[in-house]
Structures are given as structure tokens and as C-alpha cells.
């Protein structure tokens, strides 16, 4: 499974109904139950929000984001999805990754 970072953008401030919020939370609960949602929440600046999804491919990630009531109802007008390359102890914090070595100054 691949991890995708989703940034929800262009928020319609002052237009959040309780009904829309409850539908969004229901969507997040479903994703969590299915093992698709790793973490999510709004940024402190109250402009954007973020999700980290665990999906088979980018198409699945797009499908899940577009099912979110916040996106369907244009509470957030746009979003950005990027595949996350996880750095951890198991992969030596990507020290030997071609992406890392390709960015090194020689």
C-alpha cells in the first residue's frame, strides 16, 4: 500500500453546517474503519486541512477524496495529492534512496 498526503485547499469560511460536518466525519470514520485513513485534520491557520491516506494507487486516493462531502459540496474548492515516501529506521531514513542520492551535491 502507498501513502498519499492530501491537502484540502480554498476553504469557504463561515459556510460550514453541522449536517455537512457530520457527513464529512462519517466519511472519515468509514475510511478509518477500512484502514485507509492514517491521520487527518485542519491546519491551525484555519485555511487548509490534511489527510494521509493508505491506498493501492493514486486512482484510489483520488476516488476517496472525491467522495468526501467537504470536496463534493465545495467546502474546500480544491485539493492536492502527493505520494509520500516514508522515511524511517527500516529504510535508513532514505539515506540510500535514489531520490536522496540524486539530489546530493557532488
Whole-Å distance between the termini?
33 Å
Radius of gyration computed on alpha carbons: 16 Å
> What is the CATH topology classification name?
Alpha-Beta Plaits
With strands numbered from the N-terminus, the spatial order across the biggest sheet is: 2-3-1-4
The CATH homologous superfamily name equals Dimeric alpha+beta barrel
Output the helix-strand order.
EHEEHHEH
Number of helices: 4
Round the mean pLDDT to the nearest integer and report it. 96
* Outline: elongated
Structural class: alpha+beta
CATH architecture annotation name: 2-Layer Sandwich
CATH class: Alpha Beta
Architecture overview:
It comes from Mesobacillus subterraneus. InterPro entries: Dimeric_a/b-barrel, YCII. 33% of the residues lie in helices and 30% in strands. The protein has a single domain (2-103), classed as Alpha-Beta Plaits (2-Layer Sandwich), CATH 3.30.70. By secondary structure, it is an alpha+beta fold. The chain is elongated and about 55 Å long. It has helices spanning 18-33, 58-66, 69-72, 98-103; strands at 2-11, 37-42, 49-55, 76-84.
Question: Which properties best describe this structure?
Answer:
YCII; Alpha-Beta Plaits; YCII-related domain-containing protein; 4 strands; single chain; alpha+beta
Could you write a compact summary of the structure shown?
This protein has 106 residues and is of the alpha+beta class. The chain is 33% helix and 30% strand. It contains four helices and four strands.
Blueprint (SSEs and pairs):
Elements lengths: L1 E10 L6 H16 L3 E6 L6 E7 L2 H9 L2 H4 L3 E9 L13 H6 L3
Antiparallel strand pairs: 1-3, 1-4, 2-3
Amino acid at each position: 500500500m502507498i501513502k498519499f498526503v492530501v491537502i484540502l485547499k480554498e476553504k469557504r469560511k463561515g459556510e460550514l453546517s453541522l449536517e455537512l460536518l457530520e457527513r464529512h466525519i462519517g466519511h472519515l470514520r468509514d475510511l478509518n474503519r477500512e484502514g485507509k485513513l492514517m491521520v487527518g485534520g485542519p491546519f491551525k491557520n484555519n485555511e487548509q486541512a490534511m489527510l494521509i491516506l493508505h491506498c493501492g494507487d493514486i486512482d484510489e486516493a483520488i476516488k476517496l477524496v472525491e467522495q468526501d462531502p467537504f470536496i463534493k459540496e465545495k467546502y474546500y474548492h480544491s485539493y492536492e495529492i502527493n505520494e509520500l515516501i516514508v522515511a524511517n529506521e527500516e529504510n535508513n531514513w532514505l539515506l540510500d534512496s535514489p531520490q536522496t542520492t540524486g539530489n546530493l551535491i557532488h
